[in-house]
Amino acid sequence: MKQLRSILTLAGFFALMSASSLHAQEFLGQHSSNYAGINRATFNPSAIAGTRYRYHINLLSFNTTVNNRYFKYFRSDALFHPFRNAYAESDMYGKSKLTGTLTQGDNVNVLAELRTPSGYVGVGKNNWLVVGFQTRLRGFVQGSGVPSALFDAYKYRLDDGLTTASTGSFTNFTMNQHSFFETGLTVAAMPLRLDGLIRVKVGATIKRLSGARNVFLTIKNANYQVKPLNADEYVMELGNVSYEYGYTHPVQSFSLGSLFSSDYGSGTAIDLGATVEIGRIRQHAENQANYIARIGVALTDAGQISYPSTGKQYSGTLNKLTINQNQLIDIGNNSVKGLETILGTAKPATYASSTALPRTLNIDADVQLAKSFFVNATWIKPTNVGALPANLAQPQVFSLTPRFEGEDVEFTLPVTWWEGNSKPTIGFSVRFGPAYIGFSNFGGLVSKAVQPRGSLAYFGIQLWGLNDKKK
Description:
Oligomer: single chain
Shape: globular
Strand order of the largest sheet: 1-2-3-4-5-7-8-12-13-14-15-18-19-20
Organism: Runella defluvii
Keywords: Signal
Protein name: DUF5723 domain-containing protein
Number of domains: 1
InterPro entries: DUF5723 (IPR043781)
Largest sheet: 14 strands, antiparallel, barrel
Order of helices and strands: HHEHHHEEHEEEEEEHEEEEEEEEEEHE
Helix content: 10-25%
Pfam families: DUF5723
Number of helices: 8
């Protein structure tokens, strides 16, 4: 929790530095599966039309960023810090260090996504019409212009002997935390089916957004100096600081009524998609996906969340600001209060924000090279432009994924190129019956030599009912 709080506080910003990652990339590996059910609809809502399942239910699944510290310091709620911060004040400093860096450079992107019960039901012959619902909680911590000195101050702490003295300056450093809940209705149809030749699918999801909290800090310019305080500890001094920060809500208790309260943020969004499947393989198993090529195009997260003018915003300048390790931790725990205590409440104004979701264009091509063996190419391209905090960001992603899929077992090996990284990452996912697990960068978790060290990690449990296998 502290990590998000960290975002609200100068120290918190250090806390986020080690977690330069990316937006939810739709369960990489499983996102292309014909057995992903309702979880595939977030990538392309048309995908669930003509499905093998008569019904499909996602009981629970999550997707988050981790690094190899996870296996040493795992805690039960560490996965969920990006959205828990909106409602609680428990210490998240240690847990935030479990998140990993998926991208390199001066940007920070941390996520946690909890997919709560969701599902769909197919109607008519060959499930030509499918109606589904989706619910999920999403949390993001993002930053731009992150100086390496701030990144290292968090990553290595100021009191563990790994810190080195440094001086410099930076400009246009922004951190933003946003948490919200989605409730969606998905409708997909298959208007054209010519057996053995072509199948055409279309779909859309309408989403109601319930914003929990939006907080930002911008340091327009500052000088910094990291210097030793004593034999064991360093301090960081910031000089000539020009800042601005704001928040829609302080940390407060959560209730189900918060999801629909007018005191919080609200908005709408839409996902649109189309899929074409071409050809078939002779003597193929009737109960499995049978096409030679599948091409899908979708536009997702087209929408925004707006908050009422009940928030607070401050701006000002400071000649000097000194932070040691204890202050770094304390500020993170105190969330918004920390910003008000450390930076002050100069030039108060109301904060009524609107934030655009990370709208993306998702294109994938799936080729069946042999029975049950596929190769998928996916391109995820951001389409919204603008700076934080008004726009959530999305790095560009390209992945190639060999996949073996069956009714009861599946294995994928996604090779992914993230925008800003010099080398691709190699992950895997497996599904046995109702459960599945996956990573986008398994090598980064098990070897210190592999960079970046972070990985998306996800896990889920699902239920389903199959169509009659008879012709």
